[in-house]
Amino acid sequence: MKALRLHRAFEAIWGTPAGWRGSLATVNHSTLGVRLMVTAFVFFLIGGVLAMLIRAQLATPGSAFVGPEIYNQLFTMHGSIMMFLFAIPMFEGFAIYMLPKMLGARDLAFPRMTAYGWWCYLFGGSMLLVSMLLGIAPDAGWFLYTPLSSKPYSPGINSDFWLLGITFVEISAIVTAVDIIVSILKLRAPGMSLDRMPLFAWYMLVTAAMMLIGFPPLILGSILLELERAFGWPFFEAARGGDSLLWQHLFWLFGHPEVYIIFLPAAGAVSTIIPVMARTPILGYGWIVAAILALGFLSFGLWVHHMFTVGIPHLALAFFSAASTLVAVPTGVQIFAWLGTLWAGRPQMHLPMLYLIGFLVTFVLGGLTGVMVAMVPFDWQAHDTAFITAHLHYVLVGGFVFPMLAAAYYWLSHFTGRRYSYTLGKAAFWLIFIGFHLTFFLMHLTGLLGQPRRIDTYPEGVGWTLYNLLSSVGAFVMATGIALFIIDVLLQLFHAPRAPRNPWRAGTLEWAMMQPPPSYNIASLPQVHDREPLETAPDLALSLARGEGYLALPRNGWRETLAVDTKSGRIDHIVVLPGNSLLPLGTALVTGSFFLLVLLKLYPWTLLPLAGLVVLGWRWAWVLGDKHAHGELPIGRGDHAPIHAEVRDSPGWWGSVFLSIADGSLFAALIFGHAYLWTVAPNWPPPALVTASLPVVIAGLLGAALAARRSSGVTVTGAGLGLLLTALLLTAFRLAPSPTSHAYGAVVAVLLAYAALHAALALVICCFARARRRAGYIAAINGAEPRIARLWTDYAVAAGAIALACTHLPALLS
Amino acid sequence: MLAGAAAIFGLVCALLLLAFRRRGADQPVSATAWIVGGGLLFPIATLSALLGYGLIVGEQLLPRADSATLRVGAEARRWQWTFTQPGTAGPIRTRDVLHVPAGRPIDVELTTRDVIHAFWVPRLAGKMDAIPGRPNVLRIEAHRPGVYHGLCAEFCGAGHARHGFRVVAHDAAGWARFQAGEAP
Question: Which portions of this protein are annotated as coiled-coil regions (chain A) (predicted)?
Fold first, then answer.
């Protein structure tokens, strides 16, 4: 009965209070993970309905079902929804739900961030839905190429909805990526060294890192395009020194890694499920990890293969063509590891396996056509035709939807506690599989017959008619299959009998808990000795529930979980996680009001939410922590550890490091944009450079040097930041040419604004650190807070110095 | 490329099928053989060959200075194509129809008045974008006289689907008549 007593005690600490207030305030990762997945699935259905409308339009030549204005909204929204509002949030939700359970932790590292991310996603996604209901949805393609999306050719509010709504959703993706990466690196069960991590955690680690590097270029691009649309800053306008290709580079710098960001989590599910289905450990764990790392790295070197027809020199194309084919190698490694695993074991044809076969067949075909379009001469023909539509659906539906359906059937009993007991899933599979291949295999042929993408109509008698009709029929067959899947899941949710724990006899830790899982996951944390803890200790779940692991004693009402040394998995400290709070919702609402005000062009009013964000951010960090030291606390099994407020590398420190990496990626993309325009864009040099001023540069650099000094107090650091800020603002308002005159002035203005914003932010953080120390918070005296303040100060110093150099040096030298 | 892809796809399917057939066979499976052989060596060998071939073909398709080449201008706008080329009595401008001699390489210089478009005649060559501020050149050649359909391949707004044109390739006599300014 000890297990039940523990359950009640932990439930009181970790649970979500009943009622709407509790639902709004919850920060529990299981609840939020499910919310993300359900929301993403709803968006999947909406995107699917749009796809059906597209296929209805294309079923016959000369169709008058919808006109081009509506049709352009349909395919723009189909692509945007499936990419940004379905695929990414779906795997994020899955990772948010599953990672702590697989890693033997009780929650993610930043529970309030998890909640904030969900709210941002919900609000940003809703903005796009509203635009659709009003008939003013984005209509310039999901890639929003300029100048089609610029003010002269898209004067309506449509593109603004995309730029602002998607950026809002991207904020959610960035904070979630930080949350995931820190949780994987720090919040694991004791003994789980890096090489004992479940493969899924490796996949998510690389995915999250890619999100941190890959999403900021798009965020930057969106900011620049919105600035151009709103204020006429000509970043992408050739006549004033901009270049529409800069948008394409920024977009695909995000857009190609994005494909792997979507594929890797699904591949992580595959690598988890296949060995269980084959009843043998995965073949080549180390090889797979190496392949994931290689894929993450390579995926940033091939974005130009989306731009083979823009007139880039053939030699440069050769490099990107080679990189695009090279990326097939780590993918091949994984596929052969999966095939080898199936050979090594005794594969069983359960429902998840059926979907995995659907995945393998479809994805391999998509990969093969991918190699074809990586060949430059072939791509010159196939680019922007239905062949590409077919290829990308083979990769994304094959590489993401099929594995996620397999994952749904594999893990459903984890969510529901019920046993799978219907055969509808099989029928659903065949409908989806046959419908999919009918739809998209034929598109290869229509593409080769010359049918371009994004046409709302086509003439009769060019040989596309029959294929298009059959494609449309296939699409509706596939939709029927999806409907059957939904019915099947609902039946299982409400009618299926209770399942035994760990029905697949899997080895990973997520099965070592009640199903459905309690709010705290596990009553005590296990000591891990190998990659499949449940394989060696099948009774682990019971022993953990009885409190035989770590942190089995509820203390002070704290939400405790353990942080370990990243590499070895040795116990490092106790993390006391924040409880339920309305702050995430409030912050997301204020963030949303900022985007809404920009959308409505009420620019002066945006100062209100910006000030609100500073206040809320301050409060966000202030409400945590303790004013007296606890020292080493017992954690069970005879071990002791300090709490995170009393160590210097707390999760907050790690979170700041990774957030600054994402921030740095955005800054790097901005510098790239500056250099790109300077060297490649037409209509350069600009009519006027920044008026160089040696005194301003010296004052700014002096300020930077003061702020960067380790030994000085907060006052000196603050004064240094103030001086740097003044130099930046002087340059922007007194010395720089107008941002509307030429792309040079525009990009200089953004550089200076970026650096000034960071100097101001560092100033606020330094004030915060000082106020906390004065108030006597332990974390501000012995913990990570001074270190975090130092990190952001150093960042601001570096950004400020670089911005000053970029703006003044060219003029000083010329 | 198609045959190779089909063979690889067949191989993967066969391996997958056999994995289920051989259930119960107990010889151990070597990770190195599968992963190094199947996942590393096999794709690297195939892809290197394919890549080399692709680059050679790509190089041959590039426009090169050549006295036999005819140079024409193609200006795209929403939603129209204007072609300009030298004639015997001064430049000839045509709208939505490009006249070319058959059997002679043509360099099409692509420009745009507004958004990005792409010039594509599927039966004559690959495609190339017309980008504001950056003229591009595409080499096309019609080996036989006839009419070839061309279209805009880059999404350019509401009229994108109707942004097509024709290429008329003339025999020697027809070409002479066109150049002289007679209606073809």
Answer: none
